[in-house]
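Recall the central idea of this unit: under ordinary conditions, the amino acid sequence of a chain determines the structure it adopts. In this exercise we apply that idea directly, starting from the sequence alone.
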Amino acid sequence: MAPSLDISDWWVKETQKGTPVIVTTKNHNYSVVEINSPNTAFQQVDKDRGKKAKRLDLFACEEEKILNDVEPILLSTKRTLHNSSYNDGDRLLDEDQSWVLNNVFQHHPNKATKMGEKIDYVTVGKHDKYQGTRCFFVISTNSFRADFSYLKCLKNYVKEKYPDGVKAFNQKYFQKRRLKGMNQQQTGMNQQQTQ
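Accordingly, the structure predicted from this sequence is:
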């Protein structure tokens, strides 16, 4: 039988003497949780920490800076791309279009090729080749239509802004998304073969 983990006696003794200790570290790969009573010692950590806390565990301190810069851009971009008020082929509202062009498309490695003569507007829709994915399309003034990957834009953004940390960060941050996308592509191809 396993020994009891009753820390009540110890807690009572320790709370009557001593000084709280503050621990600081340069490595932020773990969290310190304050225990206020023996009853809270083994309770689950606050759920508000959620995914962000788990994700920070994957990144070194310098990579956390990149994450804090890139994550809001990624989340806003995904909200726009998957906004239920946009049907496939719909033009983005001026505010959304301006945001996507200035914060995302601006960093595409092949921006000049993708935009043609001049950008007229931006739409959302299913990718021509990968039907399981939704993407942005830039429509030029001469009606040239080109899709672009917001992930490719963000990878290049990291490369431009953080050249020293780009490789490790991109591998950690975008790897999961890349594998998910590959699975969606494979599913789409399998569906096409069965039809």
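The beta strands are 119-126, 134-140, 145-148.
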